[in-house]
């Protein structure tokens, strides 16, 4: 008996060995990824940043630096109720569900069930007739041709995952899940930047409203003086008509600026997620002075550390890792799939006979699936997976290039605007002195009040330009914060830490060099 069992086990082992020999070769000749992940040099932005590298990264609470409670409230509402944030959160749920579904199908799985059916059994004619003394005596096989086959069963299956197919799929799904989480952080940053930018535009519109009202007062005075002088024959009709034309243009500018305020408020209401008219309740912004918000320098190791500070770069890297995991999973499919399957149950023709020892049935043993005739499909799939890796890595490299470009562009523009703001401040000071001189000359009777008002109009024009430049500077500051990741840090993301697998991805990654051979 023992010899028989030994021969059976040896036979099964031989079958398994033959199967592994036939199917244990990955057909990947000529297939590989053609794109390699970009590794930015530590001095990639040295010409732009210069020696200004003693600062820190933005914090997640960077909006609070403007010290405007209304702005903080708007941002908080949007992050809770804006549809873009709800979509991003829902996508995390979808990715998590896919991960959990796959996990439930791996390792040890089980099934159980019961069936009861009504069936009519066949009655072939003369199938059981007997002959006695030359006489044929019919015999019925069944007294009742109908039966109720019944079964009660349970089964277990264990996937050994000898070649790492399921492990690779799990890694890929984890990376996709984490990418969805990082996408939510990117949506958070984009929404915050959009609200803050609009809020700056609203602040500028209110400042321009004040400026236009002052200009209207001065323009009306000049218009009245010129009209009176024309009536007395002291001036020609050209100056009076030109003053009327300028005043009409000023009124049109005021109307357009009022519309700008309302439209900006409505757009802020839409972004808040509480409806457009929520914006009509927004009061005039009360932002901190620009002098209090000067940059304290850029972070050290900016090009390298930026890879883990920009959510779009981190998400692109995670999707590249998911693509590599798909390659690993497809490679594993070239090898035999070995499972251990066990089945036990009760089967009988009637429910009454179900719970008897004769109804007991069962089996246990390995189940081997060989991809011998599926190699062409798997090779084609592997080629497609490598192409997907190229796409994902190209998007990753593109995200890095764009991020470095954004930082360089924002720094360049910000430095230019800083100089323009300083020059404009000097222009405003000069215009202010001109008004003071004109007022003194008017008091001495050397010039008319009209000349003082014209100097006031020049000063107001310079102040309007100053407001424009200061708003532009604020916006560039926010854009630089966004280019630096807006306080995002993958090491501090809420929830479980981002999964790390293959640590050979440059600086912050996990793709091994074997995929690029």
Output the CATH class name: Mainly Alpha
Largest β-sheet summary: 4 strands, antiparallel
Approximate helicity band: 55-70%
- Number of structurally distinct domains: 1
Count of alpha and pi helical runs: 10
Neighbour order of strands in the largest sheet: 1-6-7-8
How do the SSEs run, as a string of H and E? Answer: HHHHEEEEEEHHHHEEHH
Uncertain stretches of 5 or more adjacent residues = 506-517
What portion of residues belong to β-strands? Answer: 5-15%
Span of the ends, CA to CA: 54 Å
Task: Give the strand tally.
Answer: 8
Could you please describe the fold and organization of this structure?
Residues 1-23 form the signal peptide. The protein is elongated. The strands form 3 sheets. It has a 4-stranded antiparallel beta sheet, with no helix packed on it. The chain has 10 helices and 8 strands. With 517 residues, it is α+β, with helices and mostly antiparallel strands. Strand 3 and strand 4 (135-137) form a beta hairpin.
SSE layout and pairing:
Elements lengths: L1 H22 L22 H4 L19 H13 L1 H22 L3 E9 L2 E2 L9 E3 L2 E3 L8 E2 L2 E10 L5 H67 L5 H36 L29 H4 L5 H22 L4 E12 L11 E10 L5 H69 L5 H35 L34
Antiparallel strand pairs: 1-6, 2-5, 3-4, 6-7, 7-8
Helix pairs in contact: 3-5, 4-5, 5-6, 5-8, 5-10, 8-9, 9-10
Provide a compact summary of the structure.
The chain is of the alpha+beta class and 517 residues long.
Entry keywords:
OMP_efflux, four-stranded antiparallel sheet, Outer membrane efflux proteins (OEP), alpha+beta, single chain, disordered C terminus, two-stranded antiparallel ribbon, 517 residues, signal
């Amino acid at each position: 008996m023992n010899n028989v069992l030994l021969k059976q086990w040896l036979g099964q082992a031989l079958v398994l060995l033959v199967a592994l020999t036939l199917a244990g070769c990955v057909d990947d000749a000529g297939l590989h990824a053609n794109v390699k992940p970009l590794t930015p040099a530590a001095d990639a932005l040295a010409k732009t940043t210069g020696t200004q590298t003693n600062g820190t990264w933005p914090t997640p609470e960077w909006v609070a630096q403007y010290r405007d409670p209304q702005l903080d409230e708007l941002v908080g509402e949007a992050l809770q109720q804006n549809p873009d944030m709800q979509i991003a959160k829902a996508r995390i749920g979808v990715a998590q569900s896919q991960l959990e579904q796959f996990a439930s199908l791996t390792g040890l799985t089980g099934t159980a069930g019961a069936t009861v059916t009504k069936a009519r059994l066949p009655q072939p004619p003369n199938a059981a007739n007997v002959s006695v003394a030359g006489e044929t005596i019919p015999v019925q096989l069944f007294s009742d041709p109908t039966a109720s086959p019944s079964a009660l069963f349970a089964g277990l299956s264990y996937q050994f995952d000898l070649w790492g197919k399921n492990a690779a799929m799990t890694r890929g799904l984890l990376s996709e899940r984490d990418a969805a989480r990082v996408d939510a952080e990117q949506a958070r940053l984009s929404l915050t930047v959009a609200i803050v930018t609009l809020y700056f535009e609203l602040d500028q519109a209110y400042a321009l409203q004040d400026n236009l009202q002052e200009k209207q007062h001065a323009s009306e005075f000049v218009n009245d003086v010129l009209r009176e002088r024309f009536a007395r024959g002291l001036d020609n009709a050209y100056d009076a008509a030109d003053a009327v034309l300028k005043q009409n243009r000023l009124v049109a500018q005021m109307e357009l600026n009022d519309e700008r305020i309302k439209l900006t408020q409505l757009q802020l209401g839409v972004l808040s997620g509480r409806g457009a008219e929520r914006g009509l309740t927004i009061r005039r912004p009360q932002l901190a002075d620009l002098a209090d918000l000067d940059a304290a320098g850029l972070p050290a190791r900016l090009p390298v550390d930026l890879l883990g500070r920009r959510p779009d770069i981190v998400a692109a890297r995670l999707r590249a890792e998911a693509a590599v995991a798909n390659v690993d999973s497809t490679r594993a499919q070239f090898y035999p799939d070995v499972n251990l399957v066990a089945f036990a149950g009760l089967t009988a023709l009637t429910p009454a006979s179900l719970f008897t020892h004769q109804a007991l049935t069962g089996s246990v043993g390995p189940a081997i699936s060989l991809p011998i005739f599926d190699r062409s499909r798997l090779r084609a799939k592997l080629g497609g997976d490598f192409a997907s890796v190229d796409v994902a890595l190209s998007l990753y490299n593109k995200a890095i290039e764009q991020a470095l470009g954004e930082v360089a562009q924002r720094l360049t523009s910000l430095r230019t605007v800083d100089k323009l703001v300083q020059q404009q401040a000097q222009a405003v000071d000069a215009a202010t002195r001109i008004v003071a001189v004109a007022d003194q000359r008017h008091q001495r009777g050397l010039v008319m009040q009209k000349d003082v008002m014209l100097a006031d109009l020049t000063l107001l024009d310079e102040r309007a330009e100053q407001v424009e430049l200061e708003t532009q500077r604020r916006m560039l500051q926010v854009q630089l914060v966004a280019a630096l990741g807006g306080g995002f840090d993958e090491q501090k993301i809420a929830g479980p830490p981002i999964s790390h697998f293959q640590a050979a991805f440059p600086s912050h990654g996990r793709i091994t060099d074997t995929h690029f051979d």
